[in-house]
Amino acid sequence: MDAIGTVLVAMLGGALRVSTPFLFVSLGECLTERAGRINLGNEGVMVLGAMVAYATSYETGSPWLGVLAAAGAGLLLGGLHGAICGLAKVNDVAMGIAIMLAGTGIAFFFGKPYVQPSATLLPAIPFGFWSSSPQLKNALAVSPLFLLGLATAFAMAWMFRATRLGLRVRIVGESEDAARALGLPVNRTRFFATATGSALAGIGGAFLSLVYPASWNEGLSSGQGLMAVALVVFARWNPVHCITAALLFGAAGALGPSLQTVGITWGYYLFYAAPYVVTLAILIATVRPGRTLRGMPGELSIGR
Amino acid sequence: MSAIGIEAIGIGKRFGAFTALADVALKVAPGSMHFLLGENGAGKSTLVKCMLGYYRPDEGSFLVDNREVEIARPADADALGLGMVYQHFTLVPAMTVAENLVMSRADVPAVINWAQERVALEAFMAAMPFQVPLDAEVGALAAGERQKTEILKQLYLQRRLLVLDEPTSVLTPQEAEEMLGTVRDLAHGGSITAIVITHKLKEVARFADEVTVLRRGRRTGGGSAQGLTPADMTAMMIGEPQAPANPERLGAPGAEPRLELRNLTTANDGGRAGLDIAALSVCPREIVGIAGVSGNGQKELVEVIGGQRAPSGGEMLVAGQPYDGTRELAQARAVRVLPEEPLRNGCVPRMSVTENLNLRGFDRDAAGGHRAWLSRGAMVERAQRLITGYRVRAPSAEAPIGVLSGGNVQRCVLARELDGQVDLLIVANPCFGLDVKAVGEVRARIMAARNAGTAVLLVSEDLDEILELSDRILVMHGGQVVHEAAGPGADAQAIGAHMLGSHHSPA
């Protein structure tokens, strides 16, 4: 196989791996924003989720219990954000930054003892069994969490279209006036949307420590929770488009490691910065002054 | 579904020390069109909100079909079949008509079977006197269609008495005529009773069966609409027999345009077309009125001239010189703007009345030169002069302007914008939300500025206002100027047709 083929295969595998945490955190952010609130705290939730998942898996030997614990941690931290933002005159952006710092702080504090030991990791499903190429086999070893993420995206899209719950979340996010006129509980809806969204972000964190890169350290998330906000803008608040967005970001994130596999070592930091460059490029390309974004929930504080 | 009657007896409502309603009686017969008239703040909205359970009256009771009822919560009003069509729309703009209708129901199932709901909705729509596309996003509908959707929603919910709060305020004459006609047909057909809140006497004369007039929280008159002349009703509304007379137009417009726009464009915004004005001019001593349904580029036009929005192409000339809306040029060319929602667009709400009254000129001295150190004394002196001259009622000149009532904020901004030499004045919806006397005063000031030689561009959603004040009328649709007519003696129906986008003369 030639070098370009190697890089492409590595990027495919990398995209599937790197995109999964992006997918979960952007779905979580999408749910929260569709209810009319921004949660920058998801960055902290991811770091905390990664730590909690790793610690739980190490202590109990069950990685799935670790995933569950990470979702629980996200639920709690997101619930805190949701509850405080429900109070009068609380700015959700400022509060999100506080939650982000709190989440990473708690994770660093309790996570110190787990930096060295190795926990049981989540197994992968070998979709590459038919191939004789080890690279392809490796690339197609897909984590069940990726499939769960795909299922969640389609389930969320269906929820927004055809369930009472989903339409209520949309009404609350689009127009508080209309929601109140219909007698919907605005704060309660946003609280649950924020908490559930953060639970998804927590699962994204669990993927980082239990699947890829599959270790716990403090620099694990490196801003993915914040990039989720840009991802959701790119996906136009549509859960199914979040899949495309996450794959794109995943491919960008896999660029650096893929080039390394064929021995390109120069520009290491440059290629590792690809996801951030993509974030910037997407924001510049899709957002212009004096225009409202199509699909943006009407009650979002950055849009008012 | 059949119409119900309602009767209010001795309703009283106080907010703290303020008496909003005192001993108000209202009797509405089943299947009738009952108009509720009054100025802003007369208590019309408070009365219907009591009726619909949003407020609890302190005194009095309601009878529905001659039985006393307890309306403590909006849900009680729902159960009785009472519904309200609000002045501001309560539909969710980003959702389709079908989604809005289904979600307005009290018994939405947890999983919505859209195939089944669609069949039911189409059957419902087919039985209605007017139709709205079910799959259209509400945000993409014209104001008139949205209003119809609000009414359809009430009928879908099987309401038997509808309160319509200023239903025609955002509609063109044709749309208003059609909408009120439909409601009247429904009422006279016996399927609903309608209570219409308005201050437009023309609509009363044309569509009302019965009238009740409120002033300052009290019932000042009413009865059969046929027995009341407009003069009677005006007297009941404002306590004086005559509305203030129209200000007099003096002198003919100048020949040299003061404002000229050529091929002015702005970028389109989220599917809405931007401005595309081929040519527009305003001469000294001329009021050019811009008519149009809200959202057809009027706001963008005012923002571009006022410097709040950058154009994407074209030329803007003031007195023959290029103009870009910056502070420097606005001062040099004496261009002033009275924007819509002046508290938001023309004031700093937390700064004092004095400071806000000086926003145009605090950085200039008497000779017009730049001033680095502010002269507090000159600012206070100017503020006092304007407050007295325009009869602004404020707790004090040092109070933040945000605490003033809407009418007083309007007077403040008008005072500031008309102070000194004004060559070009841009005004947007100057009388929105003002009472009859304040409206008369503001219009007289605008006319006086025109008579003194100012070129005035008047943008208004109130077609009557445009017909009354303008020397020349332009109609905007989809960001373009699509029609021009002379002001005096203009045909309101023809202008309305152009506002709706049919640029052919109506048959």
Largest chain interface and its two residue counts?
A: A-B, 25 and 28 residues
Name of the CATH first level of the largest domain in chain B:
Alpha Beta
CATH superfamily of the largest domain in chain B: P-loop containing nucleotide triphosphate hydrolases
Helix and strand content put the structural class of chain A at mainly alpha
Cα(first) to Cα(last) distance of chain B is 37 Å
Number of discrete helical segments of chain B: 17
Structure description:
The complex is a heterodimer of chains A (304) and B (507). By secondary structure, chain A is mainly alpha-helical. Helix content of chain A is 70%, strand content 1%. Chain A has one domain (13-125, 143-303): ABC transporter involved in vitamin B12 uptake, BtuC (Orthogonal Bundle), CATH 1.10.3470. Chain A contains 13 helices and 2 strands, in the order ααααβαβαααααααα. By secondary structure, chain B is of the alpha/beta class. Chain B folds into 3 domains: 6-238, P-loop containing nucleotide triphosphate hydrolases (Rossmann fold, 3-Layer(aba) Sandwich); 246-334 and 421-507, Rossmann fold (3-Layer(aba) Sandwich); 352-420, no CATH class. Helix content of chain B is 33%, strand content 23%. Chain B has a 6-stranded mixed beta sheet with strand order 6-7-8-3-9-10, with helices on both faces. Chain B has a 6-stranded mixed beta sheet with strand order 16-17-18-13-19-20, sandwiched between helices. The two termini of chain B are 37 Å apart. The interface between A and B is medium-sized, with 25 and 28 residues.
